[in-house]
Amino acid sequence: MSLGGVALRPSGSDSHWPPPGTKVPWRPCVGVQNLYDQSYELSYPMLGVLGNLAHLRKHGDHTPWSAGKQVGIVYAIDLDMPDAFGDWLLAMCRSSYRTVWLDFWNFRGRQYSASGQDQGANPDDHFHCSFGKGYESESVTLLRDFAASEGKTMNLDDVTIDNDISILTGGGYKPGQKVPFERLVEVIFQRSDNASRDVAQLLKSQLSEAAELGTLKNDVAALKAAVTGLAAAVDTIAKRPATGGPSAEEVVAALLDRLKKAA
Questions:
Q1: How many Å from the N-terminal Cα to the C-terminal Cα in the chain?
Q2: Residue ranges of domains in the chain
Q3: What's residue 156's pLDDT?
Q4: CA–CA dist 70, 134 (Å, integer)
Q5: CA distances from 243 to 232, 253, 254 (A)
Q6: Position 80 pLDDT exceeds 80
């Protein structure tokens, strides 16, 4: 479900803009929507995005008028996560894992920075996650990555196509699962070199039989039996030349080139 709506600045609010009675359309930043979706997919209770009356009278990240950030965007989400999550996220913040998008996060009575620095006591016992200004379009796979570290898996058939990239690059893939072809193409061409290499290897293993038969040159139809979802993906890709995008044949050729380099 896509989040968003209109928030009303209530009476008794602080002096920060907007004045009481103002209606402000809002939407979550991309990462908040990602975590919202992942919380339901993985059964981690979601506690809130747009704040209650007390929040709306102030100007924090649970409002679409957060101080110093973009008006109309809600930058925070609250989640009920298991105890092990705190230690895991601290370790991630202190590693090469990408957490630069975090403004700050609260958990079990403490507040932490994106680098894992303890910033002192905080009343939140739940996981409060605030995104930083400038990261409104940042996609994240935080809950999927934690779930994968716990050995918690999910069936790719049970989630939407829009989430497949995050699942694949977040460690949720298990050998033997089939994934939509176009999502793999997008990963290979848009994600980091390391992620591209990893996912290319997964795709290569799924296409190995067809490759041995020598059917992968420009024969898009031959790929339909190799990967679940290919037919719909090819139809989508094939329509792209009208908008200046590559043809299906060009995409497949480029994909094969990347597969060879990743071997």
A1: 39
A2: 5-144, 160-262
A3: 33
A4: 9
A5: 18, 19, 19
A6: yes
Q: What's the token pair of residue 121?
A: 């006591």
Q: How far is residue 168's CA from residue 195's CA, in Å, rounded to a whole number?
A: 9
Report the run of H or E that residue 233 belongs to, with start and end: helix 230-238
* 122 and 14 Cβ atoms separated by less than 8 Å: no
Structure tokens at 154: 């999910």
pLDDT score of 132 more than 90: yes
Using N-to-C axis directions, what is the helix angle for 193-212 and 181-190, rounded to 10°? 140
CA–CA dist 7, 235 (Å, integer): 40
In angstroms, the CA 131 to CA 137 distance is 10
Look at the pTM and tell me if it is higher than 0.70: no
Using an 8 Å Cβ cutoff, are 5 and 25 in contact?
Answer: yes
DSSP 142-177: HHHHHHHHTT----GGGS-GGGHHHHHHTT---TT-
Going across the sheet that includes 118-121, the strands are 46-48, 76-79, 127-131, 102-107, 110-112, 118-121
Q: Which two tokens stand for residue 193?
A: 């070199």
**What phi and psi values does residue 128 have, to the nearest 5 degrees?**
-105, 125
Structure confidence at residue 10 (pLDDT): 95
Which residue, among 132, 167, 183, has the nearest Cα to 34 in the 3D structure? 167
Size of the chain, expressed as the number of residues it contains: 263
Helix, strand, or coil (residue 111): strand
pLDDT band at 160 (very low <50, low <70, confident <90, very high): very low
Mean pLDDT of 189-195: 39
Q: CB–CB of 74/62 below 8 Å?
A: yes
